[in-house]
Design a protein that fits this description.
binds nicotinamide-adenine-dinucleotide
Length: 349
């Protein structure tokens, strides 16, 4: 297939593009490159292969950009709650309007598949109850509200010639060259490695479903291959029902993998997002889908990686590995404007 993958320069996209290329697909990336400054490591086994790249903002995509593709996998958005809260109006512009516009252009251009990276955060406040795809959505943040709006706007666009699938990913973890240390397990592993101490201010009681970045990529790959009848206008939670943990449990798991790491918890309730998610539906529709990772294996993977690259505290703290820090830096230094478009004041270098 000829596949346009947006967000190929991000955490998931950097793992996904080579996987799809290794399957024999012709992949083109589209990304504006906000986090290009951060490259944690080069994979050991093979030189990293990069897809052809359209270096542009999602909001400036033109019909010609999506012509000739069989499928679009759409990842390019402001990718978490804090980013959305920082500039909600820009989040709506990119994540909602930009995504819907891309899907409209893809449909008009005759692209037959559209895979959208949604998120389990659409469920919002679950107070620990088990949630599945039938559960009502209850998004709490601009980021999660956009995910719900995009799903809602794309659903009526789907038909027999435009197959649309929503993958509601759990919170990702695991190694990616374009690393993120602002997601829970990666952050805990970085703390365990650099400080030998995980000090939580909260009691760590909220539930979180987590999934390895490679398992997300496998779900995308299988969705692209699946018969239309199995995936058209369907949404799937992506993860595994066994991989719901309290944040405290995640911290303890990570600490047990990193020798000499201590954990302490605070007393505040902290984060009010708490949900446990069931992941049975994806297995019914995509029988080959089976997650291959667990939180413990993921922590072990990161311990080995940090050892190999001799990761320093400065690297862990580097702005480009924390999405909000990097966007703030680009904004404060005039490299992106108030709408997160590249280009500073006229005459600046
Ligand atoms: N990582 C997770 O835990 C997780 C969980 C659920 C859903 N998702 C979704 O998966 C997708 C990818 O997540 P990720 O972790 O790889 O995020 P990421 O921030 O690492 O990557 C997003 C990429 O999109 C690009 N991008 C952002 N805005 C753009 C714009 N206006 N124009 C062009 N490119 C733009 C960025 O430059 C970046 O390379 C996102 O939609 C995210 O919401 C991620």
């Amino acid at each position: 297939m000829k596949i346009l993958v947006t967000g190929t320069e991000g955490y998931i996209g950097t793992v996904l593009a080579p996987l799809l290329m290794a399957d024999g697909h012709e992949v083109t990336g589209l990304d504006t490159g906000y986090y290009r400054d951060g490259w944690l490591y080069s994979p050991l086994r093979q030189p990293y292969v990069t897809p052809r790249l359209l270096n542009k903002d999602l909001r400036d995509t033109q019909p010609a950009d999506v012509e000739g593709f069989d499928a679009v996998v759409h990842l390019a958005e402001l990718s978490n709650d804090p980013l959305g809260a920082n500039k909600p109006e820009v989040t709506y512009q990119i994540n909602h309007q930009g995504s819907v516009r891309l899907a409209r252009m893809a449909k008009a251009a005759g692209v037959s598949r559209f895979v959208y990276a949604s998120s389990c955060s659409v469920y919002g406040l679950g107070v620990g109850d088990w949630l599945d795809e039938q559960s009502p959505t209850n998004p709490q943040t601009a980021y999660a509200k956009c995910k719900v709006m995009v799903e809602g706007d794309l659903r009526p666009m789907a038909d027999s010639s435009f197959c649309v699938t929503f993958l509601r990913n759990a919170t990702a973890y695991g190694a990616s060259p374009r690393m993120r240390f602002d997601i829970v397990i990666n952050d805990l592993c970085g703390l365990a490695w650099t400080q030998k101490r995980i000090a939580m201010t909260s009691d760590g009681s909220p539930w979180r479903p987590v999934v390895h970045v490679e398992d997300i990529c496998r779900a995308i790959r299988l969705t692209l291959r699946a018969p239309q009848s199995a995936v058209n206008v369907e949404c799937f939670n992506v993860g595994s029902s066994e991989e719901n943990y309290r944040v405290r449990e995640l911290a303890e798991t990570v600490a047990s993998v990193f020798p000499g790491c201590a954990v302490s918890t605070g007393s505040s309730a902290g984060d009010n997002r708490s949900y446990r998610v069931r992941f049975d539906k994806i297995r019914k529709h995509l029988p080959e889908f089976q997650t291959q990772w667990s939180a413990r294996k993921g922590a072990e993977q990161l311990r080995e990686l940090f050892t190999r690259i001799e990761m320093s505290p400065d690297t862990f703290a580097f702005r480009a590995f924390t999405r909000l820090k990097q966007l703030r830096y680009l904004s404060q230094t005039g490299q992106i404007d108030a709408e997160f478009r590249w280009g500073g004041p006229a005459g600046a270098t």
